Amino acid sequence: LFEGLFGYLRSNLTLMTTNRIDAALSSKVFEKLLALPMSFFERMPVGVVFRNLQQTSQVRQFLTGRLFQLCMDSISLPFLIGLLCTYSMELAMMVLAFTVTIALVIAGMLPVYQARLSELYGAEGTRQAHSIETIHGIRTVKSLCLEQTKKEMWDEKVVTSVRKAGRVQQFSILGGSITQFLEKGMQVAILGVGAV
Question: What is the pLDDT of residue 65?
Fold first, then answer.
């Protein structure tokens, strides 16, 4: 009952927050884009600008998804920890030890994940810049018979993007597997200690 009610409230709060953040973020980003000096647009490839604009959806998703859920869960956490300590101090300490271990694993992996993600965003921005600039200058490409050269450049950029995405996904899978292993270990430990 509590979980159902809490889930319903969480979903409604998430929806309201998502709409507000989305509107504010979109407006602010476009305002900042228009305020940039002309020199920025002259030295920055169009594809990179578009790629960076698309990142706002990921920022919104983070703010309204994981971060918001974490805040919501943090509200109920003291109550649940107090309840668990009342039930069994030993089990509570075990859960907290596993939780801290999982948090340390995530904190340790985060810098590498962020670096790989930045590499991926750079590769995707370069790929998108190439496609936009090729389409924008298609008259020149056609008149100079550069189709094959542009295709080879495109293929290189696609391979680079796919490799970078694969590295990000592999690292994400590794992190998920480690934390899932620790979560299952916590469940087994709780059952073992709780049964005694």
Answer: 65
**Are the CB atoms for 133 and 47 separated by under 8 Å?**
yes
CA 113/CA 164 separation, integer angstroms: 11
Nearest to 126 by CA among 33, 22, 39, 46: 46
| Residue, of 141 and 64, whose pLDDT is higher | 141
Which single residue is written with the structure tokens 């550069």? Answer: 146
157 touches 130 (CB < 8 A): yes
Enter the pTM of the model.
0.66
Are 120 and 165 in contact by the 8 Å Cβ rule? The answer is: yes
Q: 67-75: which pairs have CB atoms within 8 A and are 24 or more residues apart?
A: 68/13, 68/14, 68/17, 69/10, 69/14, 72/10, 72/13
| Cβ(182)–Cβ(94) below 8 Å | no
DSSP string, 103-136: HHHHHHHHHHHHHHHHHHHHHHHHHHHHHHHHHH
Task: Give the list of residues 6+ apart from residue 147 with CB closer than 8 angstroms, or none.
Answer: 141
User: For residue 66, is pLDDT > 80?
Assistant: no
For residue 111, the model assigns a pLDDT of 92
Rounded to 10 deg, the angle between the 2-35 and 66-87 helix axes is: 150
Token pair 């889930």 in the structure block, residue: 7
